[in-house]
Specification:
The protein is of the alpha/beta class and 339 residues long. It has 10 helices and 8 strands. The protein has a single domain, classed as Rossmann fold (3-Layer(aba) Sandwich), CATH 3.40.50.720.
């Protein structure tokens, strides 16, 4: 079991010179990943697929774990040599079986991007009684990282990237009622809580991993229309975002954080590979840059409207040292009880 550590925050821009319009092709240009092994959850659709493609094109051996193996294999058929493995982030036994297989292979793991996730689902509990967005977006990846820890250490310089969202603004982790047992369920609050958990996890993981040369980051990719995240959204929900033009086509406007999949994946590829980030970690990034800390202290009212994409920065509660350690302990308890 990994142990929680005292965390520290180094959350400030580094002057990357990149921005919202930067693409994965631009980020990966000049990066040589030959001899490296990269793993991307959700790597068969949306920004996950763009991430897997970028790593593959830079020479990495890429592994895509997926619940629907046939669907994933079809989606990545054009990427020669990419491995598709079976993994269900909502099934602890599936995660354990996957990580045991990987460890038994004896291979290191240089890059791990936790890109899979769900958004704004109706109230659903998994078989353990855990709220499904928290269970999928955070706990499944927490158990995955724990199971792959020795492989990450073996890489002698690994990076783990957790895909969060500006949706973390909607809620901190409500430790007293994570699974909405005593409060009214709100799908956006639940999503926000899970995205805050992604940021806190990266913060604590980075502090724990530094001595073993494992660094961690969290990212907001931007708003990308057309990914599987929209599965629980109605047409009215999507129109409320202001991301469609009069003909119903996606608006691509990086100045408003409305991005193509390649632009959306750029920040996680940057965090996973850019040498400017050597010696840095535990930070929340957006638009291929380390984000500022937002001046607001509490969660924002949940308002899905046209201004959402313009909001930037990380909420203070998402980089709170005590909350990061507390989440680590709670997460270990939750996955321990589910085995």
């Amino acid at each position: 079991m990994l142990s929680p550590q005292t965390t520290s925050v180094r959350q400030a821009p580094i002057g990357s010179g990149l921005g919202a319009a930067t693409t994965t092709e631009e980020v990966i240009d000049g990066i040589d990943l030959r001899g490296k092994i990269a793993m991307v959850t959700g790597g068969y659709s949306g920004i996950g697929l763009e991430t897997a493609r970028a790593f593959h094109n830079a020479g990495a051996k890429v592994i895509v774990p997926a619940r629907d193996r046939d669907r994933a294999a079809s989606a990545v058929a054009g990427l020669a040599g990419l491995e598709v493995e079976t993994l269900d982030l909502l099934d602890p036994a599936s995660i354990t079986a996957f990580t045991e297989r990987y460890r038994a292979s004896g291979r290191p793991l240089h890059l791990l991007v936790n890109s899979a996730g769900i958004m704004a689902s109706p109230k659903t509990l998994d078989p353990r009684g855990y709220e499904i967005q928290f269970a999928t977006n955070h706990l499944g990846h927490f158990q995955l990282v724990e199971g792959l820890w020795s492989s990450l250490v073996k890489a002698q310089g690994a990076r783990v990237v957790s895909v969060s969202s500006l949706g973390h603004r909607f809620s901190p982790v409500v430790f007293e009622d994570i699974h909405f047992e005593h409060r009214e369920y709100d799908r956006w609050s639940a999503y926000g809580q899970s995205k805050t958990a992604n940021i806190l996890f990266a913060l604590a993981l980075d502090e724990r991993g530094q001595r073993d040369r494992v660094r961690a980051f969290s990212v907001h990719p931007g708003t990308i229309v057309g990914t599987n995240l929209k599965r629980y959204l109605s047409d009215d929900d999507i129109r409320a975002f202001g991301v469609l033009d009069d003909n119903g086509a996606p608006i691509r406007d990086p100045s408003r954080n409305f991005k193509t999949p390649s632009q959306g994946a750029a920040t996680q590829v940057w965090c996973a590979t850019n040498p400017r980030l050597d010696g840095l970690g535990g930070v929340y990034c957006e638009n291929c840059e380390v984000a500022n800390v937002n001046s607001e202290t509490g969660p924002q009212s949940i308002s899905i409207d046209r201004s959402l994409g313009l909001q930037q920065g990380v909420m203070p509660y998402a980089i709170d040292q005590d909350a990061a350690v507390r989440l680590w302990v709670v997460s270990q308890d939750l996955i321990g009880r589910s085995r």
